UniProtKB/TrEMBL annotation:
Protein name in UniProt: Glycosyltransferase involved in cell wall biosynthesis
Family: Belongs to the glycosyltransferase group 1 family. Glycosyltransferase 4 subfamily.
Organism, scientific name: Halomonas campaniensis
Example of a GO biological process term: carbohydrate derivative metabolic process
Top-level taxon: Bacteria
Amino acid sequence: MSRKVLHICLSNGWGGLEMYPSRIIPELARQGWQAHGLALAGSRVAESFREAGVTPLTVPSKGRALLAARRLLGYLKAHDIGVIHCHKSSDLRLGALLATLRPSLRLFFTDHMGVTRPKKDPYHRWAYGRVTRLLSISEATRQRNLAAFPLPAERIRRLYLGIDPEPYAPRLDDRERASLRRGLGVPEGAVAIGLPGRLTPGKGQEVWIEALARLGEAAPAWHGVLIGGLRAEEGSDEAYVARLRTRLAELGLASRVTLAGFRRDLPRLFEALDIVCVPSRNEAFGLTVIEAMAAGKAVIGSDSGAIPELLDAGTGRLAAPEDADAWAAAMAELAGDAALRARLGKAARQRVLADFTLAAHVAGLIEEYSATRSG
């Protein structure tokens, strides 16, 4: 078979799901596969394909994509593409239609979000019945997929996401790190406690703020750094951001927590932090967790969703996502013990190198793309 794949992502949003195709395209190329793309015209996804070196096909809407099915089949034939990979459940309408019209196509779907309700009605039985393999990004997600989708277990595989760990390796000298910390408002000698991610309900910023308030003077001098866009066009919920600002003021924390806004230099920001918190309530995977681990940081994550698959007592700490007291206790433990932070951070980076690299993820993906049909 040819080593070519068409990634379909018909989304106007911009999050981990939408970033995924362009993240893996360079590694696919390194491992001998050529990627093509289909996206909505004018979308950030289409732009990201171009940034990854792929000129995507574009359609004005999802409906128009369905009407273009015959043209897409012609494109697939002309470019000898035998594999289609969808990333949004709504894109499966198109993927399943193409696979129905040309049964030799191999259709893949990655559940990036974690299904929340059963999908076993006639439409979903038809659409998922055309799927060659459904890829779950964690074991927690896979268990939900097994219960929700009309597929036999052998057609649902867990394939952990991965990152390139090299950009996260520390590279700042002491002077550069001190300058970056000053720019983030971190006082000299303070323990910097950061929370990166979109500022939206479910990501846990509220419990983090409450935990900082409980931390008070029980720990060494500390400073909070909240990293994430503050405006809707940056993916955040502006009403929620306003609520966070109000709560910080009510708790007297406005001067002790910096709202850093959207940043493109997250690997370097990790170098400025001493502790990274990821209090999301129900992550399907936890990409931010492994990014912080790759940076050698001491990480506190929620003991829900997939995060416990990434962190254990030897690589970080876990706390219940709604329990501010538990978060404060974990922060206090790590804030008061620099040697423990260093030990956890070193072990965390080794875990990423062993289990969560982008190269390993793409190798597993190619194994699926290349396998003979089964299930």
